[in-house]
Design a protein that fits this description.
Helices cover 35% and strands 22% of the residues. The chain is of the alpha/beta class. The chain has one domain (3-195): NagB/RpiA/CoA transferase-like (Rossmann fold, 3-Layer(aba) Sandwich). The strands form two sheets. Strands 1-10-7-4-2-3 form a six-stranded parallel β-sheet. The chain has a four-stranded mixed β-sheet with strand order 8-5-6-9. Strand 5 (93-95) and strand 6 form a beta hairpin. The longest helix is centred in the C-terminal third of the chain and has 19 residues, at 133-151. It is globular.
């Protein structure tokens, strides 16, 4: 896929679009851009692999459900993330035509990407790229969700078999809600940070 055309498609959807060859370069960019802010993270293997929590915590007040303190716990930390100035998350899939797709079980990650922040950054590895919106929906359901369920050790058919979504009724199901960003949300600054590496799930 033509990266230049993908970046142009994202810009036509209203996003700021940045591209980096290496995750380290993208991490340095975000570390410089985000300073003296309150920062919330959506659950993201991509952000975790980039060690952004440690980098940004040196000069920002950062909340991450994956790095929550014992006294706060996941839910309290996730709620804090919804009220921060800056929000960072990834995507389960990104189409070459500029649509973003995310699936969520609890809802904190998709909720934080929609409203209320000064700026939202979507950080994505090149492995999330697919040609069309239909492909993006398929990838989110049948690749990203099962891999996340396996990573978390959940008792779901997709985690046990690791091949696709079974539209299950498990209480541990993590694909309860899907958000499709057709364009940038109104009245909020949003930036896509695309990295030419395999990052996240």
């Amino acid at each position: 896929m033509d990266i230049g055309k993908i970046l142009e498609a994202l810009k036509n959807k209203g996003y700021i679009a940045s591209y980096f060859e290496k995750a380290e370069e993208a991490g340095e960019y975000l570390d410089k851009k985000i300073d003296n802010k309150t920062v919330g993270f959506g659950d993201s293997a991509t952000l975790l692999s980039m060690d952004l929590f440690s980098k940004l915590s040196a000069h920002n007040e950062v909340y991450d459900p994956q790095n929550c303190s014992e006294d706060m716990g996941f839910i309290a930390t996730a709620k804090k993330c919804l009220a921060t100035e800056i929000y960072l998350t990834s995507v389960n899939a990104l189409s070459a035509t500029g649509e973003l797709v995310n699936i969520d079980g609890t809802g904190n990650r998709v909720a934080g990407s929609l409203f209320g922040h000064e700026k939202v950054y979507f950080v994505s590895g090149i492995n999330k790229l697919v040609p069309t919106l239909e492909d993006a929906i398929w990838r989110a359901r049948n690749i990203a969700a099962p891999q996340n369920a396996m990573r978390l050790g959940l008792d779901t058919p997709c985690a046990k078999r690791g091949d696709r979504c079974y539209d299950c009724s498990s209480p541990h199901r993590i694909c309860n809600g899907m958000v499709i960003h057709l364009k940038k949300m109104n009245d909020i600054n949003m930036e896509i940070v695309l990295i030419n590496e395999q990052l996240g799930l």
